[in-house]
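Ops channel
N.P.: pipeline sanity check, posting one input/output pair.
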């Protein structure tokens, strides 16, 4: 008897679904983009609508509309009850134009910059080089385009608010009187810490081009004058002394030698007994956390020398700089904070 042709009967023991899923992740992104572009979430701001009502209001074609709306529900952006659709809480909070906090300009922008960055991965993998701004240019560039900076800053501020709330509770601030956020963007983290602990004063250290952003943002928050601005380069300009210093997502922009320098400079600027907080999406010791590894690759693609790094390495840089008491702790499920306490004797 002839044997059956190979490949028909001999199915491989596993299916290709994980590969197919990875190859089609873009569908989810595009459905969200289209919903933002068409104004789905704005249309549902006042309450729920049926599919025909939405179709008419948004000018959708009936060949697509039902699949589209149900796909949005599947993505967690809409909720369907019976035949009516409404915004899921996350969409209601962040994706309705002109209402509350609007982050709807961010997805398109970030997807475009991701496509540009990730499109260079193979080249980067082979040559180690990608097209990016020269050393330092990455920072200056982000301040050039005001509208773009604002969109990014609003998203970054959300993370800063959550980090500040965490720090406000995690540490005992009663013995500290001031905090400096080094590379603190438009000062949001410092402002949130000062709000939680009104006895604190604080400053934000950034290149001079960031000053107008900080001043504008503080005025919007009703914190004008509370967070000082220090304009300069963290590598060359004096860092004002403080009881607590923070590097939030700053060390990931540099290489180990520069990270050591930044940590050393913070140690020098801290008063005796002071505390340094370094947070980033640090890579776990075993290097298995997929999200953090992807962020690390992304940093390699968008900055000339950046990458994420392991908490154990960061702890070592702090010890080398002279911090006798160093530990690392998880932060918000996505980040790690390395805490260094400076000796009281210095
Ligand atoms: C990724 S952002 C992080 C901002 C903020 N800490 C946060 O976590 O949202 C890095 C910040 O560090 C600042 N920065 C990087 N290198 C710097 C340098 N050499 N001198 C001053 N600021 C610097 C950049 O301007 C930028 O705002």
């Amino acid at each position: 008897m002839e044997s059956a042709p190979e490949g028909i009967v001999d199915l491989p023991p596993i299916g290709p679904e994980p590969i197919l899923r990875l190859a089609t992740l873009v569908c989810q992104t595009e459905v969200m983009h289209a919903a933002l572009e068409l104004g789905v979430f704005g249309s549902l701001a006042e309450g729920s609508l049926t599919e025909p009502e939405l179709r008419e209001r948004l000018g959708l074609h009936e060949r697509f509309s039902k699949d589209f709306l149900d796909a949005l529900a599947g993505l967690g952006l809409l909720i369907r009850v019976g035949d009516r659709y409404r915004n899921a809480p996350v969409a209601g909070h962040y994706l309705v134009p002109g209402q509350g906090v609007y982050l709807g300009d961010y997805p398109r922008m970030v997807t475009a910059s991701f496509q540009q960055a990730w499109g260079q991965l193979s080249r980067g993998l082979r040559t180690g080089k990608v097209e990016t701004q020269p050393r330092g240019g990455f920072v200056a560039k982000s301040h050039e385009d005001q509208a773009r900076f604002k969109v990014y800053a609003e998203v970054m501020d959300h993370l800063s608010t959550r980090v500040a709330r965490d720090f406000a509770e995690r540490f005992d601030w009663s013995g500290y009187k001031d905090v400096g956020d080094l590379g603190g963007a438009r000062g949001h983290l410092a402002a949130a810490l000062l709000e939680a602990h009104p006895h604190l004063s604080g400053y934000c250290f950034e290149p001079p081009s960031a000053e107008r952003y900080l001043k504008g943002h503080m005025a919007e928050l009703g914190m004008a004058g509370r967070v000082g601005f220090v304009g300069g380069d963290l590598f060359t300009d004096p860092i004002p002394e403080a009881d607590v210093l923070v590097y939030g997502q700053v060390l990931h922009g540099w290489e180990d030698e520069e990270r050591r320098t930044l940590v050393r400079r913070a140690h020098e600027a801290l008063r005796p007994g002071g505390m340094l907080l370094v947070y980033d999406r640090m890579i776990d010791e075993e290097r298995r956390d997929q999200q953090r590894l992807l962020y690390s690759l992304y940093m390699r693609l968008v900055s000339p020398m950046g990458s994420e790094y392991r908490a154990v390495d960061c702890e070592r840089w702090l010890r080398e700089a002279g911090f006798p008491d160093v530990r690392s702790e998880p932060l918000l499920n996505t980040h790690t904070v390395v805490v260094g306490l400076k000796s009281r004797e210095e």
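N.P.: looks fine end to end. The chain has two domains: 17-100, 109-341.
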